[in-house]
Each structure stands twice: as structure tokens, then as C-alpha cells.
Amino acid sequence: MTDPLTPYGNKPMVTPIVNAVNYEYRDFEVLRQITDGEIDGYTYHRDDNPTVRAVEKKIAALEGAEDCIVCTSGMAACTMVYLTYLKAGDHLILFHDIYGAHYKVSLVLERLGVEVTWLNADDSIRLEQYVKANTAMIFLETPTNPLCKIVDIVAARGVADKVGARLIVDNTFATPFHQNPLPLGAHLVVHSATKALGGHNDLMAGAIAGPKREYDKLWFTRQAIGATLDAYSASLLERGLKTFVLRSARMAENARAVAEQLRGHPRVNRLSYPGLTDDPGHAVARRQMHDGYGGIMAFDIGRTQEDAKRFISALKVVCHAVSLGSTESLICIPYLTTMLYLPPERRTTFGVKPNTVRLSVGIEPVENILEDLNQALNAV
Ligand SMILES: Cc1ncc(COP(=O)(O)O)c(C=O)c1O
Predict the structure, then answer these.
(1) Is pLDDT above 70 for 9?
(2) Positive or negative CA dihedral for 364, 365, 366, 370?
(3) Which of ligand 1's atoms lies nearest the C-alpha of 98?
(4) Cβ atoms 60, 209 nearer than 8 A
(5) More confident residue, 76 or 1
(6) What is the CATH architecture assignment of 244-378?
(7) Which of 26-54 are b and which e, b meaning 16 or more Cβ less than 10 Å from the residue's Cβ?
(8) What are the structural domain ranges in the chain?
(9) Are 265 and 380 in contact (CB under 8 A)?
């Protein structure tokens, strides 16, 4: 049968957006072949979609993975991982230094009988002391959100292997341009594709990359809970990926210049950027990251939250907004935004202060960013 999209063999340059929820079966034999897994075919959007499948293959290639499964958001991806691999009685190790919404998910997991232990990224060298016979999963970010601390992926895999736990690495901050956790030992890589993979603040998506057999398990969960991405967002994500390498290189280059300017500024304290040679995470970052150190950094402004607010309010180029990894430079006070999900006493346990800011450097002309940050620092 002639493919209506390629009647003369000419393929569209862009994966078509297939909005169909369901597909008309050619006959019962085709239905049987699809449901028995003998042929690839589409039946219902919650199961699979060709636009989504195309972008999954591209993210898998970026991560050097056999396959990738995409879903509705980064948190949906993390939750799919938890639901697929954890059961009552299992022990999960989480780092305080991860995206705040994990705390909420951890409350749900505890209600379902999963035991959760939290540790600080600074304590990751003592990770071995935290694992137990029932530790089923270690979930980490590196660099961490928001303080950009570095966790040694190879060492974490060594500890996970002692008890047969799965190591999951959220690679959202580093992106596959700078870091590929799978060859370093992660069992699975998770992304908020809302961030640098999409890159334009116009879509929400999550991705999990890893071996094909894990795709099948994760697919089961996605199909069951209905977290399949819509085709339009998948198409936007595919378009974002076309410039991913260019954007990532520019962000890292801009971020390095910004970090160099900010270091030593009298109103900037505790600047954390793994690309700085005196950063505590630099040695490990140099081993496990490549082609630079990404576009994100964290630092304290002055001494109080009022100082940080004055600084942010004076910015003209850098936007005061959550999220990260986009074409625009974005800045926020995590204490008032991403950490808001945490009870107040937990917000500061791992080093975030009320005047800490997280800056995601964009692809604007670097002189515009540098000048903007400078004039805003003078306003503090
Ligand atoms: C490192 C990291 N992981 C996961 C998430 C969650 O992603 P999403 O907002 O797409 O659900 C975020 C969100 O900021 C994040 O920064």
C-alpha cells in the first residue's frame, strides 16, 4: 500500500504531527500482528504515536542509549521510574539536592510502603554508609538543582552494585552535550525535556533513556497511567533538538564568561559552577563531563533575600523566571520557587539560603548578559 505521506518516495523533512488518537485496522491479521508485537504499528495514542516515537529515537541517540521513552513532563518521567522499579518494602536513596517536587513524590511513595533516605550531595562520598540490603534504587542529579554540586557517577554505581540497586541519573542540568551517564554506569538516564532538550520554553516533556528491555518495562507503566506525550509537543521537541548542539555549546561558552566575571565580585558569594577550576566539584566534573560544564550556576547575592530581590528586579536582559536550559537567560530565587514544595526546615538543609539565586545562562550575545548582571549588581 502506498504511504500517503510519501506517495513518490519523497520523505517529509520534518516528522509529521500525527494527531490521531486511534487508527483504523486494515484487517484482523494486522491487528493480531500488532498486538502480538510481530510488527510495529499504531493502534491508540496512549500506547504509542509515530511523532513521539521519532523524537524518542533521537534522544536515545544523543544519550548513546538503545532506546528512550518520552512522556508528559520531567516529573512524570521520574515518577514512571519509581512506579516501574519500586515496591513496598524497598529502600530508595534520594539526595536533598534534587528538584524540589521529588519531596512530594517521596511522600506518595512512603504511603505505598517504600522506605526513603535522604542525604546531601556533599555526603555522596559516604554513600556506602546509606545503602542497605533492601536498597533498590539510588536516584541522583549531577550537577544538582539548584546548587550545581557534582556527584561521582562511577562511584555511585560501585555502591549500587554492592546491594544490587538501580542507579538513576537525572541528566537535565548537564544535558547529553556535556555528560552521558549510561557509559559511566547509570542504569537509566532521566530528563526534564522541558529544559535544554526542548530549549524554547514552549513545551513540557520528560524522557528516560536506557536499554531496550527497560524501555519495555517503562512502556508498560506509561501505557497504564496514560503519561504519553501529545504529538504536537513531540514535534516541538524534535525541532528543539535540531539546534540542541549549537545552543548547548553557546550556553556553556556564555556561562563560563559569566562565572569568570561573577567570581570575586564583592556582592557575589559562594559561586557554584563546576567549570571553575577551584570549584569543589571540578575534579570529578572534569572526569565525567565533556565539552564544557553547562549553562547553570548558583550563587548568593549580598547578605539578605532583599539584596537578591533588588538584584533580580534590576535585571533587564536576564528574565526573572523558573525553568532553565532555554534560549533566554533565566534567574530565580530557589528558596521562593523550586524549593517552595519543601517544609521550611528542609529548604536549607543542603545549603540553599534565602538569598541564593540560580542562573541559567542563555544564548544571547554574551556582552549583553555580562553588562546586565554588572549593572544589576551595582543596584544591590
Ligand atoms: C533537574 C530537574 N529534573 C526534573 C525536573 C522536573 O521537570 P518538569 O518540570 O518537566 O516536570 C526539573 C524541573 O525543573 C529539574 O530541574
Answers:
(1) yes
(2) negative
(3) 1
(4) yes
(5) 76
(6) Alpha-Beta Complex (3.90)
(7) eeeeeeeebeeeeeebbeebebbbbbbbb
(8) 28-242, 244-378
(9) no
The pLDDT, as a whole number, for residue 1 is: 46
Nearest-atom index, ligand 1, CA of 76:
11
* Element of type H or E holding 166: strand 166-170
Judged against a pLDDT cut of 90, whether residue 267 lies above it is answered with yes
Of all protein residues, whose CA lies closest to atom 7 belonging to ligand 1?
74
Q: Which CATH number, 1.20.120.520, 3.30.470.20, 3.10.310.10, 3.40.640.10, labels domain 28-242?
A: 3.40.640.10
Please state, as a whole number, how many other Cβ atoms lie within 10 Å of the Cβ of residue 277.
7
**DSSP designation for 144:** P
Contact between residue 63 and residue 209 where contact means Cβ atoms under 8 Å apart: yes
Q: What pLDDT score does 55 carry?
A: 98
139 lines ligand 1 (CB under 6 A): no
**Quick one: pLDDT at residue 6?**
66
DSSP 228: P
Q: Which residue has the least CA distance to atom 1 on ligand 1? A: 172
What grid cell was written down for 274? 563546576
Q: Going by CA atoms, what residue is nearest to atom 9 of ligand 1? A: 74
145 lines ligand 1 (CB under 6 A): yes
Q: Compute the distance between CA of residue 19 and CA of residue 45 in angstroms, rounded to an integer.
A: 9
> What confidence tier does 4 reach under pLDDT thresholds 50, 70, 90?
low
pTM of the model: 0.96
**Nearest residue to 199 via CA among 317, 325, 321:** 325
Confidence category of residue 35, pLDDT binned at 50, 70, 90? confident
Cβ of residue 350 lying under 6 Å from some atom of ligand 1: no
